[in-house]
Amino acid sequence: MITVAPFDGIVRDAEEGDMPRVRDIYAHYVLHSLATFEEAPPSLEEIVGRRSKLLEAGLPYLIAETAGGVAGYAYAGLYHVRTAYRHTIEDTVYVADGLRGRGVGSALLGALISRCEAGPWRQMLAVVGDSGNTGSIALHRRFGFELVGVLKSVGFKFGRWVDVPLMQRSLGSGVEKNRESPR
Q: What is the 3-state secondary structure (H, E, C) of the chain?
């Protein structure tokens, strides 16, 4: 059983009207953290386009909403585009600055995992920006992710080299071997 702070809100599918707030949440991380290796915040048009591509691929894109509005977002993306990876996805979770520790990330990741387990995917990866990102690492561990490796000094941001921890968890029957693919 996963114990998390209570989340006072709802998790729902993201709508295009949510994208300005998503852009703002993400821009904070781009400009002030190592959680992402982007160095310039993408435009609203870029954020809308990224969401559209994920939805076209049948992948979930979720919003956590509280009485104060959009508190965070999460989505699943393809791990790699080559077809042999089609059953492996990567999760992304961002919580609005000032709202971490209030159950938003847990609500989002839990809902995202649930949604992905209902699909054809069998492995979910977390590619965590920065070994020092203890909040993200702890969040993923609470949901059964295991550290499977660390890419050393692969990013350079804010004048320093940054590691990337890789975490992984199975979805549904994800560990079955030598079985025919469901697709």
A: CCCCCCCCCEEEECCHHHHHHHHHHHHHHHHHCCCCCCCCCCCHHHHHHHHHHHHHCCCCEEEEEECCEEEEEEEEEECCCCHHHCCEEEEEEEECCCCCCCCHHHHHHHHHHHHHHCCCCCEEEEECCCCCCHHHHHHHHHCCCEEEEEEEEEEEECCEEEEEEEEEEECCCCCCCCCCCCC
